[in-house]
C-alpha cells in the first residue's frame, strides 16, 4: 500500500513539475473569474485560429488585416488594469483598484513565434496572452499582453496605437533545417523604440572550414532609432539536443541626418571549431533587444 501511495505521489509531482496544457474548446470561452472585466468579451469578439492553455496561462491566436487588428487593439486598450496586480509572478484580483499592475503592452514579434499552437500549425497575425503564472519582463509584469506578428497581414505602419498601450520589442525566432553552404531564407526582424523592422535578417549561410565554422547572415539595419540587439543561434540533433551555439551583439549608430541611413551587409557569428554540422538536424535563430549590460562584439559589415 505504501509503495502504491509513493508511486501515485511521484506521478503527481512529476506532472506538476512538467506542467499541463491543452486546447480551448471551439466557440466562445467563459470568464475565468480572475480575468479583468471585458476580457472574455474581447476574446470572443472575433473567430480564433487557435487557442490553448498551459497551467494557468491562456493564449488566443487570431488572423486578420490591419482594420481587424486595429479594432481588436482598441478593445484591448479599454480593458481595466486597476483590478490586477502581479506579486511574485502570480496575478491576484483585488477587491478595490490598485496601481501595481504594469501598463498594457503591444509586443512586436516576427518569424515563427505564431506558427503553432501546442504543436499544431497555425498562421496567426496576433496573440492575446493572459499569464496568471509568470507575467514576464516583456509585458512589464502585466499578466495581459497583446503580441503582433510583424510581416503578416497587419501593416504596423498604419496601426494607431492608443496612448495607454506601450510598444515593446519582443524576442523572435525562426527554426530551419541545417544545410551547409546553401542560402537559407530567414525573414526575421526586430525593431527599436516604437519602430518595427529596424533590423532585417533576410537569409543565412552556414560555412564549414578547417579553422572554424561560421554563420553568415545577410542583414540590414536602419541607423535610427538607437538600438542594440543580440542574435543567438543554437544547433540541435534529431532529438532536439543542443550540439552547438553562437552569439553576436551589435548596435546601430543612433544618428540621423535628414532621413535615417540603411546599412546592408553581413553579420558573422563564430560557431567555433568543434561544431559538427553533420550531427545537426535543425537550428533556431533568435533576435532580441540587448540589455544595457551586454557588450557589443559584432557589426553588420557593408557589402
Report the sheet-strand fraction.
35-45%
Q: What would you call the shape?
A: globular
> What percent of the residues sit in helical stretches (DSSP H or I)?
10-25%
Q: Over the alpha carbons, how many angstroms does the gyration radius reach?
A: 22 Å
Query: Span from first to last CA?
Result: 72 Å
Order of neighbouring strands in the sheet with most strands: 1-2-3-9-10-6-11
| SSE sequence, one letter per element | HEHEEHEEEEEEEEEEEEEEEEE
Number of strands: 20
What is the average per-residue confidence, as pLDDT, rounded to a whole number?
86
Number of domains: 2
**Major pleated sheet:** 7 strands, mixed
Number of helices: 3
Structural class: mainly beta
Short account of what is shown:
The chain has helices at residues 2-18, 39-43, 66-77; strands at residues 21-23, 50-54, 57-62, 84-87, 90-93, 104-109, 116-117, 120-121, 126-131, 144-149, 165-169, 172-177, 183-192, 195-208, 213-222, 228-236, 242-251, 262-272, 282-289, 301-302. Strands 1-2-3-9-10-6-11 form a 7-stranded mixed beta sheet, covered by helices on one side.
Account of the 3D structure:
- By secondary structure, the protein is mainly beta.
- The chain has helices at 2-18, 39-43, 66-77; strands at 21-23, 50-54, 57-62, 84-87, 90-93, 104-109, 116-117, 120-121, 126-131, 144-149, 165-169, 172-177, 183-192, 195-208, 213-222, 228-236, 242-251, 262-272, 282-289, 301-302.
- Strands 1-2-3-9-10-6-11 form a 7-stranded mixed beta sheet, covered by helices on one side.
